[in-house]
Amino acid sequence: RSQRSSRGMNGRACGVCGTWRERSAFSKTQWAKRDGSKCAECTGNPSSCGAGRNESGSRSQGTTQPKEIGACAAPSELGFSARPQMPVPGFDGLTVCSDWPRTKNGLPPNAQSAIFSPLIACSIGPIEHHCSAQEIEAANTWWTNVLPAWPRWVSELQVAGINDHREALIRQAKGQPNALIFKAKGRGSVPHFNGRMQNAMLELAPMVAVEVYACVTVMYSA
Q1: What is the pTM of this model?
Q2: Measuring CA to CA, how many Å separate 210 from each of 26, 73, 88, 192?
């Protein structure tokens, strides 16, 4: 009885696909519905992508783990061709893609988890139930076409010791995961790392943080 109760507190079956999913796979609205609540993927939110994968990319065993992503929707098609670039003012040789979706007001969103969290994930490597080594590799390629400095940032964050903070990052994560690749379904996810920790991780390599912040500003405002 206690085992069943604990499991109910931590997750439930989606009312549409029937997949057992953790609490983080449901929005607050859907979770409040209890019976018939829809998981994020069935409501069209890509942020639960990657749930159910272990670090090698294989399906997790055991009924209490979320199933591999893709049970509800086909993975998004990814494009890996070169993207048009534009310079970041004040930084020699630093560029960003010029076709990034703009915001209506021309300003970056208040939160940058959609970019910061994937960069952190690519720096610390595969995360069980979220993204595999193969998905990290694909994400690195995709993001490099968006931000050519991406692999250098990953390398510099690793040298700065970001892996020493891996357990704390994952332990303190909460809320809806982010897609590993921007708005892509079924291509891996990233735990929603604490916002302050995201900034702190980037600032382990101060010049990386400066460049990332500048690039994000240009991507959304140009």
Answers
A1: 0.70
A2: 34, 37, 12, 22
